[in-house]
Amino acid sequence: MEIWNWERGRAHHNKGSENVTFLPRDKLTQGIIDFTAGSLGGAAQVYVSQPLDTVKVKQQTFPQLYKNMFDCFIKTYRTDGIYRGLYAGSIPAVIANVAENSVLFAAYGGCQKAVAYVMKVEDTKNLSILGNAFAGFLAAFFSTFTLCPTELVKCKLQALREMKQQAGKINGTGIGEANMTPWKLTKQIMETEGIPGFFRGLTSTFMREMPGYFFFFGGYEGTRELMRKPGQSKDDIGALKTMFAGAVGGVTLWTSIFPADVIKSRIQINNLKRSMTSVGLEIFRTEGILALYNGLLPSVLRTIPATATLFLVYEYTKKAINGLLL
């Protein structure tokens, strides 16, 4: 049996009585490994979760059109089919998730080192759950800049038919066109609003991502810590426990920040030039507090397989690449 244990930048390979110590992995190489693993994990996550993500966005933005999650799913499937309906926006979603997760996980490794330095912890593997949570909070600052533009395009494509039903076109841009593609929509936003148009909803995205990833990584690392056996590394708990920990992290994220996600979707899809506070208060006054949780059920159901897949691919890609480079 082979046991891989990464500590203080060195890998110890134990097989029987053999004990070989490898040289430390340099920071740049480890950052590239994290970046690659995060990219593959993000791509896998999209194809597992996109249909329920589409339902979530539609319920958040046009709650008056659907009775519940199942009604939205069935109507979308019957009206628009699988590719143009349930998987609408999947191309920008893949780009968004690859961009976000590659930067997020690369930054997370760096932020873990920064937090460990501040907390005077010699090895990042010995960081507390709170330390890992703060590292996730800081890492999300960097990933938000890559996520906001691509997620804006994704959300608009997902709600294309509803936008057309309500207005025929959005603010004179013709976004309600039936044959709209990610490239056409990107071009229209650039022509009508310029680069700032891609960052509409940036503040609400920050307010969603940074607290969300505090709970995300805190929940993930905390669950791995609870599930490991005495003397066992968190990296060696196995695929099923890793997937379960990822699912816990995802559910913790969405349940903690969902109102901010509803506000972000409204701002981005409806081209609102208002603060997230004013939009949030308007939703509360006109639709009630529960409107800030429209789409929560499909989000929770979506995130369980999605984040389980994300962390499974991430952790095992890292192990595979590290193994190939030894």
Automatic annotation (TrEMBL):
Protein's membrane topology: Multi-pass membrane protein
Entry GO CC: mitochondrial membrane
Protein keywords: Membrane, Mitochondrion, Repeat, Transmembrane, Transmembrane helix, Transport
Transmembrane regions listed in the UniProt entry: 129-147
Subcellular location(s) of the protein: Mitochondrion membrane
Keyword Repeat carried by entry: yes
GO MF, one example: L-ornithine transmembrane transporter activity
Claim: NAD is one of the keywords in the record: no
Alphabetized InterPro entries for the sequence: MCP_dom_sf (IPR023395), MCP_transmembrane (IPR018108), Mitochondrial_Carrier (IPR050567)
Ranges: Solcar repeats: 29-114, 127-226, 237-320
GO BP: any one term: mitochondrial L-ornithine transmembrane transport
Coiled-coil regions, chain positions: none
PROSITE patterns registered for this protein in UniProt: SOLCAR
Homology family: Belongs to the mitochondrial carrier (TC 2.A.29) family.
Listed name of the protein: Mitochondrial ornithine transporter 1 isoform X1
Lineage: Eukaryota, Metazoa, Ecdysozoa, Arthropoda, Hexapoda
